[in-house]
Specification:
The protein is α/β, with parallel strands linked by helices. It has 7 helices and 12 strands. Strands 2, 5, 6, 7, 8, 9, 10 and 12 form an 8-stranded parallel β-sheet that branches. Strands 1-11 form a two-stranded antiparallel ribbon.
Length: 252
C-alpha cells in the first residue's frame, strides 16, 4: 500500500477586522493583514492554494505536490474585497460556498445569536469572484440545518441550490458544504446523487489521501474534514495546522 499523504483544507469565514470583544462568533473574523500573511507563508513555503475542484485530483492521489485547499463559508462581500486580491497576487484559487436564496442579502441566520449583520455578495460581485479565478460552491438555499429538515426539504436545499446557482451565475457548481457542519449519511447520499463532486464538513483534521492504487479508498468525498483558521490563529499555529499532525488529533 502506498504511503499516505495529508492535505489540509482551510476554512475561513469573514476576512475583516473583528468587532468588539464580547461579540458572538468573533473568532470567525480573520483580519485582512493576517490573511495576507498566511497566504504569503504558504507561497514562500512552496504550497499552492487551490479551489476544491482543483484540489480533487490531489485528494484522489492522481496528482502529487505541496497543496492546500482554501474555502470560505457563506459568501461574504469582504471575501471579494480583501481575500480575492491576495489570492490573485499569489496565484491561488479557492472555493466560496454561497447561500443561494440570500445572495445580495446578509447573514440573517446569525441574527438570533447576536452576530453583527454582514453583507453577502450579490450576483454581480459573485461574477467578479469567478472572474478572479475563484470557484463558487453551494451552502444550500437558506443555510438551514439539514438535520432539522425532513427528507423532501433536505433534497430541495441540496439539489435546487446547485441548479439555481448554476443558472444565476453561469458556472458549474460541483462543491457543497453542510451548514453548521451538520449532516448524516442520508444527507451525504443526497449530495452525491445531486451530482456534486465532494462536500466539506466542520470535522477537524487534514485529509488523509493515497495514490489511487490497489483499490484503496483514501478518503470520503462527501465527508471531507477541514482545518479552521480563526482570528486567534498565530503564525506558528498556522504552520503547525498545515504541515504537522497538530489538527489531526481532532479527527472523528
Amino acid at each position: 500500500m502506498a504511503k499516505s499523504e495529508f492535505i489540509p483544507i482551510l476554512t475561513y469565514h469573514q476576512i475583516e477586522q473583528a468587532p468588539l470583544k464580547g461579540t458572538p462568533m468573533r473568532s470567525l473574523y480573520v483580519s485582512p493583514g493576517s490573511f495576507h500573511r498566511q497566504m504569503y507563508l504558504l507561497k514562500i513555503l512552496g504550497y499552492r492554494g487551490l479551489s476544491m475542484t482543483e484540489l480533487m485530483p490531489y485528494l484522489r492521489g492522481e496528482k502529487s505536490g505541496r497543496v492546500v485547499g482554501i474555502t470560505f463559508d457563506d459568501g461574504y462581500l469582504n471575501n471579494l474585497v480583501h481575500a480575492a486580491p491576495v489570492l490573485m497576487r499569489f496565484g491561488f484559487s479557492s472555493t466560496c460556498y454561497v447561500v443561494n436564496d440570500l445572495i445580495g442579502a446578509t447573514n440573517s441566520w446569525d441574527a438570533p445569536l447576536g452576530v453583527p449583520s454582514a453583507q453577502l455578495m450579490n450576483e454581480r460581485e459573485l461574477g467578479q469572484w469567478i472572474q478572479a479565478g475563484q470557484e463558487i460552491g453551494s451552502h444550500t438555499l437558506t443555510h438551514r440545518n439539514l438535520l432539522q429538515l425532513d427528507e423532501v426539504d433536505q433534497q430541495a436545499e441540496i439539489v435546487r441550490s446547485k441548479s439555481e446557482l448554476e443558472l444565476r451565475l453561469g458556472t458549474q457548481v460541483n462543491q457543497f458544504c453542510y451548514p453548521y457542519g451538520d449532516y448524516d449519511s442520508k444527507c451525504a447520499s443526497f449530495v452525491q446523487a445531486a451530482g456534486y463532486a465532494a462536500a466539506t464538513t466542520t470535522h477537524r483534521s487534514r485529509v488523509a489521501c493515497s495514490p489511487a492504487k490497489g483499490g484503496v479508498t483514501p478518503f470520503k468525498e462527501f465527508e471531507l474534514p477541514r482545518v479552521p483558521i480563526v482570528r486567534s490563529t498565530s503564525g506558528l499555529q498556522f504552520l503547525l495546522k498545515i504541515a504537522t499532525p497538530y489538527e489531526d488529533r481532532h479527527a472523528n
